[in-house]
Amino acid sequence: MYGLLCESLHDFIKESYGDDVWKLVRERADVRLHSFVTHQVYSESVIPRIAKAASGVTGTPYNELMNSWGVYFLGFVGKYGYDRILKVLGRHVRDFVNGLDNLHEYLRFSYPKVQPPTFFCQEESATGVTLHYRSKRKGYLHYAMGQLRQMGKQFYDTDIHVEVLSEQLVGDYSHVTMRLNFDNSAYRYIMKEDEEEQEILPITSDFFFEVFPFNIVFRQDMVVHNVGSGLATVFPDLDGKKINDAFLLARPLVELAWNNIISHPNNLFEIMSKEPVKRERNLHNRVQNSDCENANRLADVDVELMAFQSIIGDDYKDGNSANVMESWGDGTRCLKLKGQMRYMPEWESIIFLGTPV
């Protein structure tokens, strides 16, 4: 948990209830710090302890307090200029909500260890949208609801009524389904534009695969039947395997399954190889010995691979993959790919257009 959230809760309590209340809350929550550093990582238990203590001291119900803190947070981040990011996420409320899951990607450069929730939309209409919220953190639902309502007022001058449809625990994360009711008249215009025929410039699949050397194409049975040239260099045996046997899904927080991918068209996907990546040692020789026709293509692939290898280093030893996975439990020696999943009806397949993280 980054100090940005902790400091915003600290400021919210002080501004809403005063310094004396904050001192008492800090004592009851057993928090010795007087303030927090925004880019420093703190224990996940800090905010729940402070929020519960503040609820007890002020007599404000916990959910109500978290809701008010969510409203306050949008104003708080304006001090650091993050409100400018929020303002450009969409022209309408629907654009903002549909792109909500990708918001934290903009913040990864400043907060590389951020563990954001996952959002995705369903059943959009002219009166609102159904939003699915998944998070490994428990107790933050009303905080998120307060943010959503304030976002509508502050950036779009729109009232958003949030109705919780269901709330359940799925594995180690909570899954909440909520209906956002608001004037979504922009949806009508989007549907009208989609119905209009647009001229699309055709391109060959070979050219398409060349543009995306880390692509993966798989069918409904999850079996891979095309691998980009860059990825094939790293994992030569991937073609013909099931993608969920070779990769784990880091984001969004769902199982790597066909129906889940189809239902998340607006989400950014991040997958991670289950096995660590071997370091190629004779890339230069391979380029020298290849025929002229393939030399340029292989060189391009190897340049990308060498760039990735400069990150993963030289620690991999043949035959010791289990030890590497054990030593690097955070996955830093595994290949991470980030990109978009697109359904291709002509192929009856999904293509993952990824790049190495």
From TrEMBL:
InterPro entries: H-NOX_domain_sf, Heme_NO-bd, HNOB_dom_associated, HNOB_dom_associated_sf, NO_sig/Golgi_transp_ligand-bd. Residues 2-164 form the Heme NO-binding domain. GO terms for biological process: nitric oxide-cGMP-mediated signaling; response to oxygen levels. Residues 201-357 form the Haem NO binding associated domain. One of its GO terms (cellular component) is guanylate cyclase complex, soluble. One of its GO terms (molecular function) is guanylate cyclase activity. The keyword Nucleotide-binding applies. The keyword Nucleotide-binding applies. Keywords: cGMP biosynthesis, Nucleotide-binding. It comes from the Eukaryota. Signal peptide: none annotated. Its EC number is 4.6.1.2. PANTHER family: GUANYLATE CYCLASE SOLUBLE SUBUNIT BETA-2 (PTHR45655), SOLUBLE GUANYLATE CYCLASE 88E (PTHR45655:SF10). This is guanylate cyclase. It comes from Gadus morhua (Atlantic cod).
